[in-house]
Model the fold of this input.
Amino acid sequence: MRSPLIFDCHLDLSLNGLEFNRDLRLPVHELRRREEGMTGKGIGCGTTAFPEMRQGRVGICVATQLAGCMKGARPIANWMSPHQAWAQTQGQLSWYKAMEEEGVMRQILTLHDLNAAIDLWNSDEPDEDKPICYILSLEGADSIRTVGHLERAWEQGLRAMGPAHYGICRYALGHDMVGPLSAAGKELVTEMDRLGMILDVTHLSDGCFWDALKIFNGPVWASHSNCRALVPDPRQFDDDQLKAIIERGGVIGAALDAWMMIPGWIRGKTLPQDVGLKLEVICDHIDHVCQLAGNALHSGIGTDLDGGYGTEQTPADLDTIADLARIPAMLEKRGYKEDDINNIMSGNYLRFLRESWAKMGL
Ligand SMILES: [Zn+2]
Done:
């Protein structure tokens, strides 16, 4: 039997295409070979490229633009000014368009596009010939130069956004900070609501999370967030936050960034093989969300693979993104039924999008 379609709600594909200088049309092992002898975090140990996405049937994903000018944060995609950050995201958009012209990606803008992407990936055509269908999202809103620029981004196809990343962002505080949503942040979130943009609550500080939910009436998801009950760090959501997302009809994407999977991980020091971190651990986070919800309708996959790191910060038994196809069997072993598994692997996010976009007539 063919493995289920996988929807990955968070992949920094353009970051890899441009900042890591990877031609994602090539297989992962070829990309690693080309980076031999080079140094830097995540270099030479990537896990994600289009051939392996197709092989694992990760046919539909949320792909990001990413350029911050956060204060007090790690220097990742961090620019000195909003106009530099905006220019960077425009370059990233241009990369996605180039991939579309090459026929290897296809952007999903509307409900019609979404249904076409699902039909394509359910069709009997060979998977290796199919484009990766993507929904554009922005991780951290710093590059949105003014609230007025958000409509321009919407017209470019931006359909989801997380206002914060790390540290003090221009509109909201990252998860590593403490404090409420600023006036600028409230204005931004209100404009997202008006446009029909999905609010990605991942990376928001606790205060910003609750403030944003209070004023935002549209669709809410957490693209790549694990459970604080299992990994006690503010990067993960506590049970009250997870329940609030569930009550809003949202979906929480379980991530494969090692330090978010198990407690006590020290980035840059702990190695997956030292602590025996296995892919199976993602099922603990999936199961926690399902237990809180009382069903399997609010859990999904948002791997964040190659989000500025590689195999040194992912489960030891994961070689490439194609290994996601092993998750269904792990869930089955835990007693999950076929329908539940299909929902977790893609159905929940697809239903969320269909319902949200049908409601707004997109
Ligand atoms: Zn992230």
Observations:
- DSSP finds 14 helices and nine strands in the chain.
- The chain has one domain: 7-360.
- The longest helix spans residues 338-360.
